[in-house]
Specification:
Structural class: alpha/beta
Distance between the termini: 64 Å
CATH topology of the largest domain: Rossmann fold
Shape: elongated
Number of helices: 18
CATH class of the largest domain: Alpha Beta
Strand order of the largest sheet: 3-2-1-4-5-6-7-8
Strand content: 5-15%
Helix content: 40-55%
Bound molecules: uridine-5'-diphosphate-xylopyranose
CATH superfamily of the largest domain: NAD(P)-binding Rossmann-like Domain
Largest sheet: 8 strands, mixed
Number of domains: 2
Oligomer: single chain
Number of strands: 14
Length: about 425
Protein backbone atom coordinates (compact mmCIF):
# COMPACT_ATOMS: atom_id res chain seq x y z
CA UNK A 1 0.00 0.00 0.00
CA UNK A 2 1.06 3.61 -0.40
CA UNK A 3 1.42 4.98 3.10
CA UNK A 4 2.40 8.40 4.42
CA UNK A 5 3.48 8.96 8.00
CA UNK A 6 3.22 12.52 9.33
CA UNK A 7 5.77 13.11 12.09
CA UNK A 8 9.13 11.33 12.26
CA UNK A 9 9.65 11.34 16.02
CA UNK A 10 10.07 8.15 18.01
CA UNK A 11 6.71 6.65 17.07
CA UNK A 12 6.68 8.03 13.52
CA UNK A 13 10.14 6.93 12.45
CA UNK A 14 9.73 3.43 13.86
CA UNK A 15 6.33 3.23 12.14
CA UNK A 16 7.91 4.30 8.82
CA UNK A 17 10.67 1.70 8.96
CA UNK A 18 8.51 -1.18 10.14
CA UNK A 19 5.64 -0.54 7.70
CA UNK A 20 8.20 -0.50 4.89
CA UNK A 21 9.60 -3.76 6.25
CA UNK A 22 6.08 -5.23 6.01
CA UNK A 23 6.22 -4.50 2.28
CA UNK A 24 4.49 -1.12 1.96
CA UNK A 25 5.70 1.98 0.09
CA UNK A 26 6.20 4.54 2.82
CA UNK A 27 6.96 8.25 2.85
CA UNK A 28 7.84 9.89 6.16
CA UNK A 29 7.18 13.60 6.43
CA UNK A 30 8.30 16.13 9.00
CA UNK A 31 8.34 19.93 9.07
CA UNK A 32 11.73 19.86 10.84
CA UNK A 33 14.28 20.31 8.09
CA UNK A 34 17.24 19.30 10.27
CA UNK A 35 15.56 16.10 11.37
CA UNK A 36 14.81 15.06 7.79
CA UNK A 37 18.41 15.89 6.79
CA UNK A 38 19.73 13.67 9.60
CA UNK A 39 17.42 10.81 8.65
CA UNK A 40 18.26 11.17 4.96
CA UNK A 41 21.95 10.94 5.81
CA UNK A 42 21.18 7.49 7.25
CA UNK A 43 21.16 8.38 10.95
CA UNK A 44 18.33 8.06 13.43
CA UNK A 45 17.92 11.25 15.52
CA UNK A 46 17.60 9.03 18.66
CA UNK A 47 18.95 5.72 19.90
CA UNK A 48 16.60 2.82 19.16
CA UNK A 49 18.04 -0.68 18.73
CA UNK A 50 17.76 -1.97 15.15
CA UNK A 51 16.08 1.18 13.81
CA UNK A 52 18.93 2.71 11.83
CA UNK A 53 19.76 -0.59 10.11
CA UNK A 54 16.12 -1.27 9.22
CA UNK A 55 15.54 2.31 8.05
CA UNK A 56 18.63 2.28 5.81
CA UNK A 57 17.80 -1.15 4.43
CA UNK A 58 14.30 -0.02 3.43
CA UNK A 59 15.56 3.27 1.98
CA UNK A 60 18.12 1.43 -0.19
CA UNK A 61 15.44 -1.09 -1.17
CA UNK A 62 13.36 1.83 -2.48
CA UNK A 63 10.33 1.30 -0.24
CA UNK A 64 11.03 4.15 2.17
CA UNK A 65 11.74 7.86 1.66
CA UNK A 66 11.55 11.07 3.66
CA UNK A 67 10.54 14.61 2.77
CA UNK A 68 9.53 17.95 4.23
CA UNK A 69 7.09 18.54 1.37
CA UNK A 70 3.53 17.60 2.41
CA UNK A 71 2.12 18.05 -1.09
CA UNK A 72 4.46 15.45 -2.57
CA UNK A 73 4.06 13.07 0.36
CA UNK A 74 0.30 13.11 0.80
CA UNK A 75 -1.14 13.38 -2.72
CA UNK A 76 -1.19 9.69 -3.62
CA UNK A 77 -1.35 8.10 -0.14
CA UNK A 78 -3.96 5.43 0.54
CA UNK A 79 -3.41 5.64 4.29
CA UNK A 80 -1.94 8.56 6.24
CA UNK A 81 -0.74 7.87 9.78
CA UNK A 82 -0.74 10.81 12.20
CA UNK A 83 2.32 10.38 14.42
CA UNK A 84 2.75 13.95 15.61
CA UNK A 85 3.47 14.92 19.21
CA UNK A 86 0.73 15.47 21.79
CA UNK A 87 2.73 17.23 24.53
CA UNK A 88 1.13 18.10 27.85
CA UNK A 89 -0.25 21.59 28.55
CA UNK A 90 0.23 23.00 32.05
CA UNK A 91 -3.26 21.71 32.91
CA UNK A 92 -2.13 18.13 32.13
CA UNK A 93 -4.39 18.01 29.05
CA UNK A 94 -2.75 16.81 25.84
CA UNK A 95 -2.11 19.58 23.33
CA UNK A 96 -3.72 18.54 20.06
CA UNK A 97 -2.62 21.45 17.89
CA UNK A 98 -0.19 19.30 15.91
CA UNK A 99 -2.91 16.69 15.33
CA UNK A 100 -5.26 19.36 13.97
CA UNK A 101 -2.54 20.80 11.73
CA UNK A 102 -1.65 17.36 10.40
CA UNK A 103 -5.31 16.66 9.61
CA UNK A 104 -5.52 19.95 7.74
CA UNK A 105 -2.47 19.03 5.70
CA UNK A 106 -4.14 15.79 4.66
CA UNK A 107 -7.30 17.61 3.59
CA UNK A 108 -5.31 20.15 1.63
CA UNK A 109 -3.03 17.79 -0.26
CA UNK A 110 -5.01 14.56 -0.73
CA UNK A 111 -5.77 13.89 -4.38
CA UNK A 112 -7.87 10.79 -3.69
CA UNK A 113 -10.00 9.23 -0.97
CA UNK A 114 -7.78 8.47 2.01
CA UNK A 115 -7.82 6.67 5.36
CA UNK A 116 -6.46 8.83 8.19
CA UNK A 117 -5.12 6.75 11.08
CA UNK A 118 -4.33 8.34 14.44
CA UNK A 119 -1.31 6.68 15.97
CA UNK A 120 -0.37 9.41 18.43
CA UNK A 121 -1.84 8.81 21.89
CA UNK A 122 -4.88 11.07 22.04
CA UNK A 123 -7.86 11.51 24.37
CA UNK A 124 -11.08 9.73 23.47
CA UNK A 125 -13.07 11.99 21.15
CA UNK A 126 -10.08 13.26 19.17
CA UNK A 127 -10.97 11.33 16.01
CA UNK A 128 -14.35 13.06 15.92
CA UNK A 129 -12.48 16.38 16.03
CA UNK A 130 -10.16 15.24 13.25
CA UNK A 131 -13.18 14.25 11.18
CA UNK A 132 -14.70 17.68 11.69
CA UNK A 133 -11.48 19.43 10.63
CA UNK A 134 -11.40 17.33 7.47
CA UNK A 135 -15.03 18.20 6.73
CA UNK A 136 -14.49 21.91 7.32
CA UNK A 137 -11.62 21.94 4.84
CA UNK A 138 -14.18 21.09 2.12
CA UNK A 139 -11.95 18.77 0.16
CA UNK A 140 -13.40 17.04 -2.88
CA UNK A 141 -12.25 13.70 -1.48
CA UNK A 142 -13.54 11.28 1.12
CA UNK A 143 -11.75 10.77 4.42
CA UNK A 144 -12.10 7.76 6.70
CA UNK A 145 -10.71 8.42 10.15
CA UNK A 146 -9.61 5.60 12.43
CA UNK A 147 -7.61 5.09 15.59
CA UNK A 148 -4.64 2.71 15.59
CA UNK A 149 -2.75 3.34 18.84
CA UNK A 150 0.89 2.33 19.17
CA UNK A 151 2.08 0.09 21.98
CA UNK A 152 5.81 0.64 21.56
CA UNK A 153 8.30 0.59 24.37
CA UNK A 154 11.38 2.69 23.80
CA UNK A 155 14.36 0.40 23.39
CA UNK A 156 12.11 -2.37 21.98
CA UNK A 157 10.12 -0.28 19.55
CA UNK A 158 11.15 -2.03 16.31
CA UNK A 159 10.60 -5.44 17.86
CA UNK A 160 7.24 -4.32 19.34
CA UNK A 161 6.04 -3.16 15.92
CA UNK A 162 7.23 -6.22 14.00
CA UNK A 163 6.04 -8.73 16.62
CA UNK A 164 3.15 -7.03 18.43
CA UNK A 165 1.07 -8.82 21.07
CA UNK A 166 -2.01 -7.32 19.42
CA UNK A 167 -2.98 -4.62 16.96
CA UNK A 168 -5.86 -2.29 17.80
CA UNK A 169 -7.99 -0.54 15.21
CA UNK A 170 -10.98 1.60 16.04
CA UNK A 171 -13.03 2.75 13.07
CA UNK A 172 -16.56 3.48 11.94
CA UNK A 173 -16.40 2.64 8.26
CA UNK A 174 -15.70 -0.61 6.40
CA UNK A 175 -13.32 1.30 4.14
CA UNK A 176 -11.13 2.17 7.13
CA UNK A 177 -11.28 -1.35 8.62
CA UNK A 178 -10.51 -2.89 5.23
CA UNK A 179 -7.52 -0.60 4.66
CA UNK A 180 -6.08 -1.29 8.10
CA UNK A 181 -6.55 -5.05 7.64
CA UNK A 182 -4.49 -4.74 4.46
CA UNK A 183 -1.80 -2.68 6.20
CA UNK A 184 -1.34 -5.34 8.88
CA UNK A 185 -2.06 -8.41 6.76
CA UNK A 186 1.61 -9.57 6.87
CA UNK A 187 1.32 -9.71 10.68
CA UNK A 188 -2.21 -11.10 11.04
CA UNK A 189 -1.27 -13.82 8.52
CA UNK A 190 1.32 -14.93 11.10
CA UNK A 191 -1.33 -15.10 13.82
CA UNK A 192 -1.13 -11.63 15.39
CA UNK A 193 -4.52 -10.66 16.78
CA UNK A 194 -6.21 -7.60 15.30
CA UNK A 195 -8.80 -6.17 17.68
CA UNK A 196 -11.47 -4.05 16.02
CA UNK A 197 -13.55 -1.58 18.01
CA UNK A 198 -15.31 1.73 17.57
CA UNK A 199 -13.00 4.74 17.49
CA UNK A 200 -13.48 6.11 21.00
CA UNK A 201 -12.98 2.65 22.50
CA UNK A 202 -9.60 2.32 20.78
CA UNK A 203 -8.57 5.82 21.87
CA UNK A 204 -9.62 5.20 25.45
CA UNK A 205 -8.11 1.68 25.58
CA UNK A 206 -4.65 3.07 24.87
CA UNK A 207 -4.83 5.47 27.81
CA UNK A 208 -6.35 2.73 29.96
CA UNK A 209 -3.36 0.44 29.20
CA UNK A 210 -0.70 2.99 30.06
CA UNK A 211 -2.49 4.20 33.19
CA UNK A 212 -2.91 0.60 34.35
CA UNK A 213 0.80 -0.16 33.87
CA UNK A 214 1.72 3.02 35.76
CA UNK A 215 -0.70 1.94 38.49
CA UNK A 216 1.04 -1.45 38.80
CA UNK A 217 4.37 0.33 39.36
CA UNK A 218 2.97 2.81 41.88
CA UNK A 219 1.12 0.03 43.68
CA UNK A 220 4.42 -1.80 44.14
CA UNK A 221 6.08 1.40 45.31
CA UNK A 222 3.35 1.68 47.96
CA UNK A 223 4.02 -1.98 48.88
CA UNK A 224 7.76 -1.13 49.06
CA UNK A 225 6.99 1.57 51.66
CA UNK A 226 5.12 -1.02 53.72
CA UNK A 227 7.89 -3.62 53.27
CA UNK A 228 10.47 -1.11 54.50
CA UNK A 229 8.43 -0.54 57.64
CA UNK A 230 7.59 -4.22 58.23
CA UNK A 231 11.03 -5.62 57.40
CA UNK A 232 9.60 -7.52 54.40
CA UNK A 233 11.07 -7.94 50.92
CA UNK A 234 9.20 -6.29 48.01
CA UNK A 235 11.03 -8.36 45.38
CA UNK A 236 9.75 -11.55 46.93
CA UNK A 237 6.29 -10.04 47.31
CA UNK A 238 6.41 -9.24 43.56
CA UNK A 239 7.39 -12.85 42.80
CA UNK A 240 4.44 -14.14 44.81
CA UNK A 241 2.01 -11.68 43.24
CA UNK A 242 3.42 -12.20 39.74
CA UNK A 243 3.00 -15.97 39.92
CA UNK A 244 -0.74 -15.35 39.85
CA UNK A 245 -1.54 -15.20 36.12
CA UNK A 246 -4.32 -12.69 36.87
CA UNK A 247 -1.68 -10.25 38.13
CA UNK A 248 1.43 -11.13 36.00
CA UNK A 249 5.02 -10.36 37.06
CA UNK A 250 5.77 -7.52 34.60
CA UNK A 251 5.66 -3.93 35.86
CA UNK A 252 5.81 -4.97 39.51
CA UNK A 253 9.34 -3.66 40.06
CA UNK A 254 9.47 -1.12 42.87
CA UNK A 255 12.09 1.60 42.58
CA UNK A 256 12.36 5.32 41.97
CA UNK A 257 9.32 5.17 39.75
CA UNK A 258 8.31 5.55 36.14
CA UNK A 259 9.34 8.35 33.80
CA UNK A 260 9.69 8.89 30.07
CA UNK A 261 7.48 10.80 27.72
CA UNK A 262 4.50 8.42 27.88
CA UNK A 263 3.40 7.34 31.34
CA UNK A 264 3.53 10.72 33.15
CA UNK A 265 1.93 12.63 30.30
CA UNK A 266 -0.64 9.95 29.45
CA UNK A 267 -1.70 9.67 33.07
CA UNK A 268 -2.18 13.45 33.33
CA UNK A 269 -4.06 13.54 30.01
CA UNK A 270 -6.30 10.65 31.07
CA UNK A 271 -7.06 12.39 34.35
CA UNK A 272 -7.88 15.61 32.45
CA UNK A 273 -10.13 13.67 30.06
CA UNK A 274 -11.96 12.05 32.98
CA UNK A 275 -12.58 15.49 34.49
CA UNK A 276 -13.82 16.83 31.15
CA UNK A 277 -16.21 13.90 30.98
CA UNK A 278 -17.47 14.74 34.46
CA UNK A 279 -15.78 11.88 36.33
CA UNK A 280 -13.29 12.38 39.15
CA UNK A 281 -10.86 9.46 38.65
CA UNK A 282 -8.86 10.15 41.82
CA UNK A 283 -6.95 6.88 41.56
CA UNK A 284 -4.95 8.33 38.67
CA UNK A 285 -3.72 11.24 40.77
CA UNK A 286 -2.78 8.87 43.59
CA UNK A 287 -0.69 6.86 41.09
CA UNK A 288 1.19 10.06 40.17
CA UNK A 289 1.59 11.02 43.85
CA UNK A 290 3.11 7.63 44.72
CA UNK A 291 5.45 8.06 41.77
CA UNK A 292 6.69 11.44 43.03
CA UNK A 293 6.99 10.00 46.52
CA UNK A 294 9.32 7.25 45.23
CA UNK A 295 11.97 9.87 44.41
CA UNK A 296 11.49 11.67 47.73
CA UNK A 297 12.03 8.38 49.54
CA UNK A 298 15.42 7.74 47.88
CA UNK A 299 16.53 11.34 48.48
CA UNK A 300 15.49 11.09 52.15
CA UNK A 301 17.38 7.81 52.47
CA UNK A 302 20.57 9.39 51.11
CA UNK A 303 20.14 12.31 53.51
CA UNK A 304 19.53 10.03 56.46
CA UNK A 305 22.68 8.04 55.65
CA UNK A 306 25.01 10.95 54.86
CA UNK A 307 23.55 13.54 57.27
CA UNK A 308 24.57 16.86 55.63
CA UNK A 309 24.70 16.73 51.85
CA UNK A 310 26.87 19.83 51.53
CA UNK A 311 30.45 18.79 50.73
CA UNK A 312 29.34 15.24 49.96
CA UNK A 313 30.04 13.56 46.63
CA UNK A 314 27.24 11.35 45.37
CA UNK A 315 27.75 9.06 42.38
CA UNK A 316 24.61 8.56 40.30
CA UNK A 317 24.53 5.49 38.05
CA UNK A 318 21.93 5.68 35.30
CA UNK A 319 20.43 8.91 33.97
CA UNK A 320 18.01 7.76 31.26
CA UNK A 321 14.39 7.14 32.33
CA UNK A 322 14.94 3.40 31.87
CA UNK A 323 17.74 1.17 30.52
CA UNK A 324 18.60 0.80 26.82
CA UNK A 325 17.60 4.29 25.79
CA UNK A 326 19.31 7.68 25.64
CA UNK A 327 16.00 9.33 26.51
CA UNK A 328 16.07 11.44 29.68
CA UNK A 329 12.64 13.03 29.31
CA UNK A 330 10.96 13.09 32.74
CA UNK A 331 13.65 10.71 33.97
CA UNK A 332 13.30 9.94 37.69
CA UNK A 333 17.12 9.75 37.80
CA UNK A 334 17.41 13.41 36.76
CA UNK A 335 14.66 14.51 39.14
CA UNK A 336 16.68 12.85 41.89
CA UNK A 337 19.89 14.52 40.64
CA UNK A 338 18.20 17.94 40.84
CA UNK A 339 16.99 17.25 44.36
CA UNK A 340 20.42 16.19 45.58
CA UNK A 341 22.07 19.17 43.87
CA UNK A 342 19.52 21.52 45.48
CA UNK A 343 20.50 20.07 48.86
CA UNK A 344 24.09 21.11 48.17
CA UNK A 345 25.61 17.76 47.17
CA UNK A 346 28.13 17.32 44.38
CA UNK A 347 26.54 14.80 41.99
CA UNK A 348 28.62 12.91 39.44
CA UNK A 349 26.53 10.93 36.98
CA UNK A 350 27.29 8.15 34.56
CA UNK A 351 25.08 6.56 31.91
CA UNK A 352 26.00 4.33 28.97
CA UNK A 353 23.86 6.32 26.49
CA UNK A 354 22.31 9.40 28.05
CA UNK A 355 25.24 11.61 29.07
CA UNK A 356 24.64 14.33 26.48
CA UNK A 357 20.90 14.55 27.13
CA UNK A 358 21.45 14.57 30.89
CA UNK A 359 23.95 17.43 30.68
CA UNK A 360 21.51 19.36 28.57
CA UNK A 361 18.69 18.83 31.09
CA UNK A 362 20.73 19.32 34.30
CA UNK A 363 23.77 21.49 33.53
CA UNK A 364 25.00 21.36 37.16
CA UNK A 365 25.37 17.61 36.99
CA UNK A 366 29.00 16.51 36.59
CA UNK A 367 29.54 13.61 34.25
CA UNK A 368 31.96 10.69 34.24
CA UNK A 369 32.95 8.46 31.36
CA UNK A 370 32.60 5.19 33.21
CA UNK A 371 30.83 3.95 36.34
CA UNK A 372 33.99 3.63 38.43
CA UNK A 373 35.08 7.16 37.55
CA UNK A 374 31.75 8.52 38.78
CA UNK A 375 32.23 6.68 42.08
CA UNK A 376 35.86 7.72 42.67
CA UNK A 377 35.90 9.67 45.96
CA UNK A 378 32.12 9.30 46.47
CA UNK A 379 30.43 9.13 49.87
CA UNK A 380 27.49 7.27 48.41
CA UNK A 381 26.52 5.58 45.16
CA UNK A 382 22.89 5.74 44.03
CA UNK A 383 21.63 3.36 41.34
CA UNK A 384 18.88 5.22 39.48
CA UNK A 385 18.53 3.21 36.24
CA UNK A 386 19.14 -0.52 36.00
CA UNK A 387 21.60 -0.81 33.10
CA UNK A 388 23.15 -4.30 32.75
CA UNK A 389 26.60 -2.68 32.48
CA UNK A 390 26.53 -1.89 36.21
CA UNK A 391 26.30 -5.58 37.10
CA UNK A 392 29.69 -6.11 35.46
CA UNK A 393 31.50 -3.55 37.66
CA UNK A 394 34.21 -5.03 39.92
CA UNK A 395 32.71 -4.54 43.41
CA UNK A 396 36.08 -4.78 45.17
CA UNK A 397 37.48 -2.00 43.00
CA UNK A 398 34.31 0.06 43.51
CA UNK A 399 34.60 -0.22 47.29
CA UNK A 400 38.27 0.70 47.19
CA UNK A 401 37.76 3.98 45.39
CA UNK A 402 34.72 5.21 47.31
CA UNK A 403 35.20 7.31 50.46
CA UNK A 404 32.26 5.55 52.19
CA UNK A 405 31.26 2.07 50.96
CA UNK A 406 27.56 2.98 50.76
CA UNK A 407 25.17 1.98 47.97
CA UNK A 408 21.54 3.11 47.72
CA UNK A 409 19.87 0.94 45.11
CA UNK A 410 16.85 2.74 43.67
CA UNK A 411 16.18 -0.11 41.23
CA UNK A 412 17.03 -3.22 43.28
CA UNK A 413 19.65 -4.04 40.67
CA UNK A 414 22.19 -5.73 42.92
CA UNK A 415 22.06 -9.01 44.80
CA UNK A 416 22.03 -8.07 48.51
CA UNK A 417 24.20 -11.09 49.42
CA UNK A 418 26.87 -10.03 46.91
CA UNK A 419 26.84 -6.47 48.30
CA UNK A 420 27.17 -7.82 51.82
CA UNK A 421 30.10 -10.06 50.82
CA UNK A 422 31.77 -7.12 49.09
CA UNK A 423 31.57 -5.14 52.34
CA UNK A 424 29.07 -2.45 51.36
CA UNK A 425 26.37 -0.90 53.45
CA UNK A 426 23.54 -1.58 51.04
CA UNK A 427 20.16 0.16 51.01
CA UNK A 428 17.80 -1.39 48.45
CA UNK A 429 14.18 -0.30 47.86
CA UNK A 430 11.51 -2.13 49.83
CA UNK A 431 13.99 -4.78 51.02
CA UNK A 432 15.91 -5.01 54.29
CA UNK A 433 19.01 -2.82 54.35
CA UNK A 434 22.44 -4.29 55.10
CA UNK A 435 24.35 -1.96 57.38
CA UNK A 436 27.99 -2.74 58.02
C1 LIG B 1 5.43 2.81 27.67
C2 LIG B 1 4.51 1.59 27.39
O1 LIG B 1 5.10 0.41 27.92
C3 LIG B 1 4.23 1.45 25.93
O2 LIG B 1 3.33 0.38 25.69
C4 LIG B 1 3.62 2.76 25.43
O3 LIG B 1 3.30 2.71 24.07
C5 LIG B 1 4.56 3.92 25.71
O4 LIG B 1 4.84 3.97 27.11
P1 LIG B 1 8.02 3.31 27.57
O5 LIG B 1 7.70 4.68 28.05
O6 LIG B 1 8.98 3.15 26.45
O7 LIG B 1 6.71 2.55 27.10
O8 LIG B 1 8.63 2.54 28.81
P2 LIG B 1 8.30 1.29 29.71
O9 LIG B 1 9.23 0.20 29.40
O10 LIG B 1 6.87 0.96 29.73
O11 LIG B 1 8.72 1.88 31.15
C6 LIG B 1 8.13 3.07 31.65
C7 LIG B 1 8.73 3.48 32.97
O12 LIG B 1 8.31 2.60 34.01
C8 LIG B 1 10.25 3.49 33.02
O13 LIG B 1 10.68 4.65 33.69
C9 LIG B 1 10.60 2.25 33.82
O14 LIG B 1 11.82 2.36 34.50
C10 LIG B 1 9.43 2.20 34.80
N1 LIG B 1 9.14 0.86 35.34
C11 LIG B 1 8.76 -0.15 34.51
C12 LIG B 1 9.23 0.64 36.71
O15 LIG B 1 9.56 1.54 37.49
N2 LIG B 1 8.91 -0.60 37.20
C13 LIG B 1 8.51 -1.64 36.41
O16 LIG B 1 8.24 -2.72 36.94
C14 LIG B 1 8.45 -1.40 35.01
Amino acid sequence: MRITVIGTGHVGLVTCATLAALGHDVVGIDSDDEKIKTIRSGRSPFHEPGLEELMNREVSGGRLSFTTDPAEAIAEAEVVFLCVGTPPKTSGEASLVAVENAARLVAKHASRSVVVAEKSTVPAGTAQRVKRVLELERSAHEFHVCSNPEFLREGHAVEDNLHPERILVGAESDVAFEAMRRVYEPLTAKGVRLIETDIQTAELAKHACNAFLAMKISYMNGIARLCERAGADVVQVAEVMGSDSRIAREFLNAGIGYGGFCFPKDLAAFDALARQLGYDFGLLREVARLNDEAIEVVAAKVKEILWNLEEKHIALWGLSFKPNTSDTRLSPALKLARKLLDEGARVVGYDPEALANAKNDVPDLELANDPLDAARGAHCLVVATEWDEFLGVDLAKLKELMVYPVVVDGRNLFDPAAMKDAGFSYYPTGRPAIIQ
